[in-house]
Amino acid sequence: MRKEDCFYLGKIVSKYSYKGEVLAKLDTDEPDAYENMESVFVLMKGNNLVPFFIDRCRLHKSDLLRLDFEEVKNEAAADRIMGHELYLPLTMLPKLDENQFYFHEIIDFDVTDASKGPIGKVTGVNDSTSQAILLVAQGDKEILIPITDAILTKVDRKNKTVHIDAPEGLIDLYLE
């Protein structure tokens, strides 16, 4: 499995027991959707995704997932995967409503503003801040657009276009 064919699920953050159980911090709004997994890919050294099969998996304190892997049955084995990232195939992403989207799927979409018209292409999404931000390239300039329901009005997957209604002056800040 290639990393490009997967999505980031979370990261192993601590050991839970001396029997090798670990806790993973999930990067999702719906952690309960991943409570009954049979396997997961662990990103190992050399950027290799290695399948790990799960004996038991359950939520722990709402946003942590307690994992009991078939291959990890003691503290030493748990130490070897500590801090490693977890991935699942893109095909396992839950389906979304029409105007909802996953950040990775809108990369390279055109962006059209209600008043300015076409403004550029999506190059990425910065979700490390309290407000997710759409990164839009127009030539050698980068435009930052907050992702809110009021600004992002429509995602047209068929035509690969994101429609926005940016506040007056926002786009001009980046183009002057």
Automatic annotation (TrEMBL):
It holds the Pfam family PRC_RimM. InterPro entries: PRC_barrel-like_sf (IPR011033), PRC_RimM (IPR056792), RimM (IPR011961), RimM_N (IPR002676), RimM_N_sf (IPR036976), Transl_B-barrel_sf (IPR009000). It is found in: Cytoplasm. Its main location: cytoplasm. The keyword Chaperone applies. Residues 104-170 form the Ribosome maturation factor RimM PRC barrel domain. The keyword 4Fe-4S does not apply. SUPFAM superfamilies: PRC-barrel domain, Translation proteins. Keywords: Chaperone, Cytoplasm, Ribosome biogenesis, rRNA processing. Gene3D superfamilies: PRC-barrel domain, RimM. Residues 9-89 form the RimM N-terminal domain. It comes from the Bacteria. HAMAP family: Ribosome_mat_RimM (MF_00014). The PRC barrel domain binds ribosomal protein uS19. Binds ribosomal protein uS19. An accessory protein needed during the final step in the assembly of 30S ribosomal subunit, possibly for assembly of the head region. Essential for efficient processing of 16S rRNA. May be needed both before and after RbfA during the maturation of 16S rRNA. It has affinity for free ribosomal 30S subunits but not for 70S ribosomes. Belongs to the RimM family. This is Ribosome maturation factor RimM. It comes from Euzebyella saccharophila. The gene is rimM.
